[in-house]
Amino acid sequence: MQTAKHSKSTKADILDSALDIVREAGALSLTIDAVAERSGFSKGGVLYNFPTKDALIAAMVQRLADRFAEEIETARASHMRSKSPTLAAMVDVTEIWLRENKSIARAILVTHMKSPNLIDSFMALKKRLKDAIRAEHPDFSEALAIWCSLEGLHFADAHGVMLHTDDERTGIFANLRRRLSLT
């Protein structure tokens, strides 16, 4: 059992190192050698856990999808009186991720262009979120408009074409929250 626990810890350490590289230096800086150096594992140790760069990237995307889902679930609890607790949580989490994970969004974009199947875990998460929002929100078209606003902010940021100031972005998120309130 200790080996399985150690293996999970090793994989987590490698993934954290890979995400740090992308966050700090961009997706093009992600190499097996860079991950080995950053994580303190040998190149062979990294390749043992992730036999290819694509396997590493797929695991990174899965880890991000899991983290995003966990953060939404946590934030959801504070929005139970909203038109859609799930969508209200997505507003909160997206605002935080846009502030803290800019390089990660760009990396996912680069990954999708190179190998579209590597983002399957994020697409599966988005389908689950869409189903939850459809079940919660009384006007699904309004919910989709709010979600599209979040996606637009995310993609503008990922493409490096965000024109809104921090104050404008804060106002946008406040408007989206008002649209989801029951009052």
Care to describe what's here?
By secondary structure, the chain is mostly helical. The chain has two domains: 1-51, Arc Repressor Mutant, subunit A; 61-180. The radius of gyration is 18 Å and the shape is elongated. The chain contains nine helices and no strands. It starts with a helix and ends with a helix. α1 packs across α4. The chain is 78% helix and 0% strand. Residues 31-50 bind DNA. Keywords: DNA-binding, Transcription, Transcription regulation. This is TetR family transcriptional regulator. Residues 8-68 form the HTH tetR-type domain. Pfam families: TetR_C_28 (PF17937), TetR_N (PF00440).
What is the gist of this entry?
The protein has helices spanning 2-25, 32-39, 43-49, 53-76, 85-100, 102-114, 120-136, 140-158, 166-180. It is an all-alpha fold and 183 residues long.
Secondary-structure map:
Layout: H1 2-25, H2 32-39, H3 43-49, H4 53-76, H5 85-100, H6 102-114, H7 120-136, H8 140-158, H9 166-180
Helix pairs in contact: 1-2, 1-4, 1-6, 2-3, 4-5, 4-7, 5-8, 5-9, 6-8
